[in-house]
Records
---
Amino acid sequence: MDLPVMPPVRPMLAKSAATIPPGMQYEAKWDGFRAIVFRDGAEIELGSRTGKPLTRYFPELTGALLEQLPARCVLDGEIVIARGGGLDFDALLERIHPADSRVRHLAEVTPASLIAFDLLALGDVSLLDTPQSERRAALTDALRDARAPLFTAPVTHDLDVARGWFEQFEGAGLDGVIAKPPGLPYRQGERVMVKVKHERTADCVVAGLRPHKSGPVVGSLLLGLYDAGGRLQHVGVCASFPMRRRQELMAELEPLRMPDATGHPWQDWADAEAQAAGRLPGGPSRWTGKKDLSWTALRPERVVEVAYDHMQGDRFRHTAQFRRWRPDRTPESCTYDQLEEPVRYDLARVLGGEPEAR
């Protein structure tokens, strides 16, 4: 390849905000794999947010992009899989598989799409220093004839429309709104955009902990919810504590520590069949690789209120945030019934390209 912007590119990032700021360009926040696409004639490469190649995992995309993209370009976007009218992140995770035969089978049964939202180079010209509004116009023009599986992300400059998207699009599997200053150049690896995500709270059972990599303090709390059959399912972790708080938590939870997992609801965590039957911590994963997933069992007697953005199936999509202990709640009362379900919204209406508003 010989492009004006060469890999690796560090994607421009966003910082969190509680409300949608005025005077911005607004887009939906897609829940998929961030990807920088490099195309130079017959060559094409998909790079992940960390710079690792994604090309081999999405053969159906590379063929479509070679047909539709300008002959020489670099664009920023999100790889997603749409099923049942919404985004399916679990299906996307399955695409990262070492076996080529499996990759090609999944490319047929769960084909991916690319949502393009920024243009970094076109022909021999780098657009990194070009204002956001001009890059958006160039992207729209370059992809004016795009068709599935390539889409241009809908955009608006109307704050009220963005607020409506924030409420409606979640039902299609999207997880918020991104706001971009119209005059912003593309600043690699910097958090210069704004993301506004949904935040909800849930009361969960603390059923275990993982130690911090730095020593004998809490790294994360393992969270559980009871399903309709009365089984405690592992739904995620709560982390991101200051070091002093990690030390305090270790002392607070010491009375609940079990000598081993015998008799614990998750005592079979290492058993593959048990992993398949329910949500347990410590299971094998292509993503965690050799990462130490060992954990300390705690008697499931304490309840914590955590904040989360949205669910991925039956678990939290991202790390939950500690809010407070709930001594007034019993562990048995911590069920899936408390979780708020967003109103369904057909993804096709999102990708239909609602007209830009100014």
---
Amino acid sequence: MTSTGYKMPPYLKALTVMIFIIVLVFFLIVGKSLLVPLFMGGFFAILFTPLAMWLESKKVPRILSCVISLLMMTALVGGLLTFVISNVASFTKDFDNVSGRITEYAREFDDWTQETFAYDAALRDKANTDYLKNILTENSSSISDFALKTVGSMTGLVLIPVFMFFFLLYRDHLTQVIIQIYRDKDPELVKMRITSLRKVILNYIVGVVKVMGILAILNITAFSILGIKHAVFFGTLGAILNIIPYVGPFFGAMLPMVYSFLTKDSLFYPAGVLVSYQIIQMIEGNILTPKIVGGNVNLNAFITFLGLIIGGTIWGVAGMILVIPMMAILREIFDLSDATRPFALLLGEEKVENQNSEEEQEAEEVENENEK
């Protein structure tokens, strides 16, 4: 006589899933100050793992290789932040004549509405130029705190290199932990999937950095031709913001457009910025990203867009940056088990998932042959 286990009714399963999602979101919100530096440290560790492995292959002790990688990351991020802050600090000087220019634009708009529609909008009287100038000045100085707000606090800024160091130092130990979790699988197969996952995330990060570099060159060239001041800063910042899909390019275009609108004497310049940025984005979307980044993360467009909204709502800018590689990691982890493979199918592209299923079948065949 066989005993049958208790089967949970469908409505209880749905309720369990909803409770799990609520608890997970609550955990992500409450633990933001710790989780954001933890994940950022993990991604920096993945980015600098090849350097650490190369140093260790040259007989450099692991601790020393981790320290060298940490110093290089600190120098790279510190140099980038210094570049951004130093350029933003000079914006206030360029806004000396903003109030008068806004008044002039308001008067021209009133004249146009009067001649075209015989209606006086009286925008020149409604435009509080001193207030607008103060907003521009205050926001320009507050951008220097962007990195601090992204990671949540000064403590988070300090924790990122600490987590990165420990991830690099104990990367083999973490691999053994995952192998023990999936001990019903072939250890070599699990290790191969972990290595593949690390390469996927590394290729994604390196590909994004390459695209950012090319975009920075194109942006700087276009803005320099148009005669936009701070072309290097706007071009570099637009390339960095491109790491946030959908939303980043919008702000990357708006900043130089607003700046040229307020500091130049013609609408040709903001229009030129918009046109050049659209052309560059077309090149990026149709040539650069497909060729360089490709399908490394293998996430479908709907999940990517939904993840950006959820990540931005929970963790702000940091969530929008981290959500795509995080979902790529989850997709690979879900694909390790038959019970969670439907979730991997939900996150990924159908064509890619079919290919992964074939690869999984081949791996299982190899495993069976080894057992024989």
---
Amino acid sequence: MGVMPIASSTVTSGRLLSLLSLLQVRRDWPGALLAGRLGVSERTVRRDVDRLRELGYPVQAVKGPEGGYRLEAGGRMPPLLFDEEQAVALAVALRIAVGTGAGIEEAAARALATVRQVLPARLRQRVDQLEITAAGRDTQVGTDVLLALSSAIRATEEVRFDYDSPSRPAEGGPPRRVQPHHLVVRSGRWYLVGWDAVRADWRTYRVDRLRLRVPNGPRFTPREVPGGDVATFLAARFKGSDTADAWPCQGEVVLDLPIADVAPFAGDGVAEAAGPGKTRLRTGSWSWPALAASLLRFGCDVAVTGPQELRTAFAELAGRAAAAAQPRSPSPAGRGRCR
């Protein structure tokens, strides 16, 4: 993004900007169509194209019955032209780039400084008013890994990698073989969604835990994730569901608390007033014991509306809690202690 040098006149300079803007939004432009859009002759268009070439823009002539021009990718980055909305969108995107965990924070900061420097004062003020703080970025992924996975997805090539999971650390065994379909960022972490042909099932992997091996495996035929939408599919997997984006265990209770004390902590549940000082809450979790335990965090009396599985889970938790409350012999030194 840069400032176009002044040509022989203000009119010519403005026309060059208009020509560049047109060339950036369409692959091929017939010369006659460009001339009509700019309100000039085709000869003038040819002269303006030559000026753009002198400024470093790789504008190529297109052969054909009508002839025309095409803005090609060059060996270096020439100045780019953005309208006001595009410039602000670019600045916003660069500000939030630090929250992606893609290891591009420093480059994004430099790019933002470059963009901000050439913005008009009114746009610079809008961008400066945007305050974004990245939270929870405890993992980083190398840009080279993201690019390698993206390339494999486009080429429909199987990837091979070692994977360090909490339950199964990689210990030099055979690599995992996965057909990669989607690379997704969620809450500052990158995930690979792929088809495991050996297990005949979809799998989700944290990208920061995998170490790619080379070369890639054979080509494969892409398939559609269940439900057709990868974002919904991933959200469902995080809830322990294999199908819809919904908790597999859902129940309803009445809490002995006013709705003002419940609603801020209801998460994706539905809270509604159920009388003076009481709140009806419909919510879910990945298991019945987990749902019962999450409801106990409100620290009040709980009346279960349904289903029976939730009542059973409360009874089981009560028994475990009673057993945990019984005094036991001290554990050996250094074990079982909170530090």
